[in-house]
Amino acid sequence: MPKQTSIPCILMRGGTSKGPYFRMQDIPQDPEERTRILLAAMGSPDVRQIDGIGGADTLTSKVAMVGPSEREGVDVDYLFAQVSVDQAIVDTSPSCGNMLSGVGPFAIESGMVPIAGDVTSVVIYDINTKSRIEAIVQTPDGAVNYEGDARIDGVPGTAAEIRLNFMDIVGSKTGALLPTGNVVEEIDGVRVTLIDVAVPMMIFRAADLGKTGYETPAELNADTALFGRMEAMRLEAGRRMGLGDVTGKVVPKMAMLAEARDGGSVAARYFVPHKTHAAFAVTGGLCVSSCVLLPGTVADGLADRPDGLDCTVIIEHPTGVLDVAMTAKAEGNSVEIVSGGVVRTARKLMEGQVFVPSHLFHVKSAA
């Protein structure tokens, strides 16, 4: 056997994230073996990821695995993995809506989905959240088009629009919009909303933890006391949401809210969870937007709730704004979240093979 094994992949930017996209058939199905391979491919654990293709940042240490789906009405299955930069951890419990932006183009580029005309619809099943998403990809002239006028904050320049329409987003991990049945509750003396739309989250007001909500990611990351307190709260939130012991896991995620100051609906900072997101996650945007629409949450009286239930929630974040198109309907005195959509972009950066040590394959556990 050769000392290194090659795995085909395409390196893509998806939204404000970046990483390799693999065909599922090329990645081991055994979770332990898959973890070894992905850690080696990305160069983890190492703060520079010098021995792999990771970008030494949470947003550039992500992996997408895509394969043809056998589910009715679905084109491809998508499994996301967050590869820790400095720890030997590969977490497939959350999803990533930014990396999701590249799934449609990758599926077309890989021959999994045929081009249907000037635009091609790719229906994706998100294995992480057990939900469906429709990606509308620009495909004029019989190929994926990456050039266009769409601009998203956190990415320089412009690119072709990719519309993501999220379905089945409520109760992604817990099976309920409000896993505890409460719109607001207290953890460590802080009012929080525990909500699950596209990703389970603990959402709270910045002022309740002594922050303005307008701090930069660097300023927040430097406050170790803040992160210590938030982590203790997050562990309790995970227990209450039925997620068990979430030590070492990235869900539930967290967000702090403040009043918008640049014409948006709300200002927010998103935690991933042990670091502040440089921009804002798509799945987190869907969850925060749902929190804004739902009466009685921690966003009530703070956020500028849009008129009507088919609306756009504008989240102000460190590098600009995220526009989230929400569809909801009234249900008594409450609101039922139906779907959400965002505009993202993606770009194919490189196509080839990544090499990993061959001895990492087919290693039996000592257990």
Tell me the strand percentage band: 35-45%
Radius of gyration: 20 Å
Give the overall form: globular
Helix content: 10-25%
SS summary, helix count: 6
SSE order in H/E notation? Answer: EEHEEEHHEEEEEEHHEEHEEEE
Instruction: State the total count of DSSP E strands.
Output: 17
Span from first to last CA?
Answer: 26 Å
Main beta sheet strand tally, sense and closure: 17 strands, mixed
> On the 0-100 scale, what is the average pLDDT?
95
- Kindly name the structural category: alpha+beta
Can you describe this structure?
The protein has helices spanning 31-42, 97-100, 103-109, 217-221, 224-240, 282-293; strands spanning 4-14, 17-23, 62-68, 76-83, 90-91, 119-126, 131-138, 162-166, 185-187, 190-197, 199-205, 253-258, 266-271, 310-317, 320-331, 334-344, 346-357. The longest helix has 17 residues, at 224-240. The protein is 16% helix and 35% strand. Strand 15 (320-331) and strand 16 form a beta hairpin. The chain is built from six helices and 17 strands. It is globular.
Please write out the topology.
Blueprint (H helix, E strand, L loop, with lengths): L3 E11 L2 E7 L7 H12 L19 E7 L7 E8 L6 E2 L5 H4 L2 H7 L9 E8 L4 E8 L23 E5 L18 E3 L2 E8 L1 E7 L11 H5 L2 H17 L12 E6 L7 E6 L10 H12 L16 E8 L2 E12 L2 E11 L1 E12 L10
Family: Belongs to the PrpF family.
Protein name: 4-oxalomesaconate tautomerase
Pfam families: PrpF (PF04303)
